[in-house]
Design brief:
With 333 residues, this protein is an alpha/beta fold. It folds into 2 domains: 154 residues, Quinone Oxidoreductase, Chain A, domain 1, CATH 3.90.180.10; 151 residues, 3-Layer(aba) Sandwich (Rossmann fold), CATH 3.40.50.720. It has 12 helices and 16 strands. The strands form 3 sheets. Strands 3, 5, 6, 7, 8, 15 and 16 form a 7-stranded mixed sheet that branches. This is NADPH:quinone oxidoreductase. Pfam families: ADH_N, ADH_zinc_N_2. One of its GO terms (molecular function) is oxidoreductase activity.
């Protein structure tokens, strides 16, 4: 099958377009003919080698973390899906590879595609929506009437997280540039901060939750907007000891991770708030709950651009500029 592959980790490297064997179909797997995939910042970080310590992939690696398509074969123990089903998913982290013609995934990671979305729209959803769900519902336990700051509201995670937080009944603040004000307000943001002209940490106070997807400087400033007992949750790092343990990292890597997050954990304790790092995990059941919200009109996808499969490298380059509003999608057919 045709695929885009990482041959070596390097910043600025391009993916190689070539032939790759069709993936093995295990007994609990579904084989999906890929109709669309979306590009995430995570793809760029994997390509650049930023995660090679905690995600030790064997190269060459087919990149890609989101998929929509049609089931063409199922393993002998699959009970939830059949050939012909239209599905979408974020494959689990050790079985990525959606920049290709086919992918095999464990049925537990897959959900039926929302019936009101195109394949391209559906492919934009899984990773960012699961991230938003796991941050806001599972980790933050966000409640009606609470206040949440979602950084980078016009980004992939931000556009979904704003909608989910509003559905949960929270007051939502977000940071973005002036050109994106109308977009984030249309998604439900109550307070919008222009990060180019305003210091969010001077405007906001007594927040219950901050969702960070930006750098260390923003992370530390975010401590100032939280009330005692608040939660600072980062999806961009640094990873914390709980993540290293959950990821079954060895003793040495656990110590490295402990050191990486020591500063922000110490500052959080001083501010009487908690810090945690979240690396989202594949979950078909959660994705099915998100499907229900999409079909009910609670959450809608935000797609910036759609590239052809042949232009996968151009799509990745565009995502790396950081200017995309919502998601960038690759249409396979």
């Amino acid at each position: 099958m045709k695929a885009f592959l990482v041959d070596r980790y390097a910043k600025g490297a391009v993916l190689r377009f070539g032939e790759s064997p069709e993936p093995e179909l295990r007994e609990t797997d579904v084989m999906v003919q890929i109709h669309a995939a979306s590009v995430n910042v995570l793809d760029a970080k994997i390509k650049d080698g930023e995660f090679k310590l905690i995600l030790p992939y064997r190269l060459p690696l087919i990149l890609g973390n989101d998929v929509s398509g049609i089931v063409v074969r199922v393993g002998s123990k699959v009970s939830r899906f059949k050939p012909g089903d239209e599905v979408y998913a974020r494959p689990r982290q050790d079985r990525i590879g959606t920049f290709a013609e086919f992918i095999a995934m464990n049925e537990a990671d897959v959900a039926i595609k929302p019936n009101n979305l195109t394949m391209e729209e559906a492919a934009s959803i899984p990773l960012v929506a699961l991230t938003a769900w796991q941050v806001l519902v599972e980790r933050a336990n966000l409640q009606k009437g609470q206040k949440v700051l979602i950084h980078a509201g016009s980004g992939g995670v931000g556009t979904i997280a704003i909608q989910l937080a509003k559905h949960l009944g929270a007051l939502v603040a977000t940071t973005t540039s002036t050109s994106n004000f109308d977009l984030v307000k249309s998604l439900g943001a109550d307070v919008v901060i222009d990060y180019k002209t305003q210091n969010f940490e001077e405007v906001l106070k007594d927040y219950d939750v901050v969702v960070n997807s930006l750098g260390t400087d923003t992370l530390e400033k975010s401590l100032r907007v939280l009330k005692p007992g608040g939660k600072l949750i980062s999806i961009s790092g640094p990873p914390d000891p709980a993540f290293a343990k959950q990821n079954s990292s060895g003793w040495l890597l656990q110590q490295v991770v402990r050191l990486l997050s020591f500063g922000i954990r110490r500052k959080s304790k001083r501010h009487q708030v908690s810090y945690s790092f979240l690396f989202m995990t594949a979950d078909g059941e959660q994705l099915a709950k998100i499907t229900a919200l999409i079909e009910a009109g609670v959450i809608r996808p935000v797609v910036d651009r759609i590239f052809s499969f042949a232009k996968t490298n151009e799509a990745l380059t565009y995502v790396e500029t950081g200017r995309a509003k919502g998601k960038v999608v690759i249409a396979m057919r």
